[in-house]
């Protein structure tokens, strides 16, 4: 079945405010008229400024993370309500950098998934294996566990609000991309996990994005795979021309 492709830019901890605004302005212009789904996730502190720029465009405003609590004495934390207040519609959860640098567990990520969905935010849930796990032949097992734990308690009627990003950790920011065939194999496996947890319809409809050094040079082939429904892009999302090229491949 035809799923609309979804290209999301994870800007991570990059740029200053002027650079963030300029990048967003450039993308609003260059993505005009393209017909896939597009999201950008600037650093928290630039969300407000970027929100003003993307308002009324075909670009969804995303956040790179969200805390699990509603409010109160949680120094440095950012809640779902604060994000929504700035026009954020989607939150990236479970990114490998959050799992690794901030010790986020599958349990915490699942709690955040529920907090986001229950409060009207869409989710891009990241999963993916370490290089040592790929070499040990346990890629599918790792991805299955992360999907099962991340989706625990999520109801089938909430699935239209959640996408999966398969991001092999060894491919993130390294310039090493999974080959289209390697990525397709895991995507098909993950789709089958969703079928087992929910239904064939759920598996057919969920979007599974690839992330890990996707760029303007390799995106066309990756996006041509039957189970790759888009990309979560880090480095290549920081340049208008590179990100636009990827978005155009998705828009075909
Ligand atoms: C990411 O951060 O999700 C990512 C895929 O980064 P990069 O494209 O730089 O590998």
Automatic annotation (TrEMBL):
It catalyses: D-glyceraldehyde 3-phosphate = dihydroxyacetone phosphate. Its EC number is 5.3.1.1. GO terms for cellular component: cytosol. The active site is at 95 (electrophile), 167 (proton acceptor). Gene3D superfamilies: Aldolase class I. The keyword Metal-binding does not apply. Keywords: Cytoplasm, Gluconeogenesis, Glycolysis, Isomerase. It is an enzyme of class 5 (isomerase). GO terms for biological process: gluconeogenesis; glyceraldehyde-3-phosphate biosynthetic process; glycerol catabolic process; glycolytic process. PROSITE patterns: TIM_1, TIM_2. Substrate binds at residues 10-12, 173, 213, 234-235. GO terms for molecular function: triose-phosphate isomerase activity. It is found in: Cytoplasm. Pathway: Carbohydrate biosynthesis; gluconeogenesis; Carbohydrate degradation; glycolysis; D-glyceraldehyde 3-phosphate from glycerone phosphate: step 1/1. The keyword Isomerase applies. PANTHER family: TRIOSEPHOSPHATE ISOMERASE (PTHR21139:SF42). Involved in the gluconeogenesis. Catalyzes stereospecifically the conversion of dihydroxyacetone phosphate (DHAP) to D-glyceraldehyde-3-phosphate (G3P). Homodimer. Belongs to the triosephosphate isomerase family. This is Triosephosphate isomerase.
């Amino acid at each position: 079945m035809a799923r609309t492709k979804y290209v999301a830019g994870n800007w991570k901890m990059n740029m200053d405010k002027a650079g963030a605004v300029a990048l967003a302005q450039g993308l609003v212009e260059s993505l005009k008229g393209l017909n896939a789904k597009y999201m950008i996730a600037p650093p928290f502190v630039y969300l407000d400024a970027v929100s003003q720029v993307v308002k009324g465009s075909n670009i969804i405003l995303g956040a790179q993370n969200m805390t699990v609590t509603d409010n109160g004495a949680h120094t440095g934390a950012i809640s779902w309500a604060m994000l929504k207040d700035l026009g954020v519609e989607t939150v990236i959860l479970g990114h490998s950098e959050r799992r690794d640098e901030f010790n986020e567990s599958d349990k915490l990520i699942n709690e955040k998934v529920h907090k986001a969905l229950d409060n009207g935010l869409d989710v891009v849930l990241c999963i993916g294996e370490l290089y040592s796990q790929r070499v040990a032949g346990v890629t599918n097992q790792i991805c299955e566990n992360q999907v099962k734990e991340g989706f625990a308690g999520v109801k089938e009627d909430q699935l239209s609000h959640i996408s999966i990003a398969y991001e092999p950790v060894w491919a993130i920011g390294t310039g090493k991309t999974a080959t289209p065939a390697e990525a397709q194999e895991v995507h098909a496996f993950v789709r089958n996990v969703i079928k087992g947890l929910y239904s064939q319809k759920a598996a057919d409809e969920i979007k599974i994005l690839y992330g890990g050094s996707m760029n303007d040079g390799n995106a066309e082939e990756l996006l041509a795979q039957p189970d790759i429904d888009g990309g979560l892009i880090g480095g290549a999302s920081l340049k208008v021309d590179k990100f636009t090229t990827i978005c155009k491949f998705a828009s075909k």
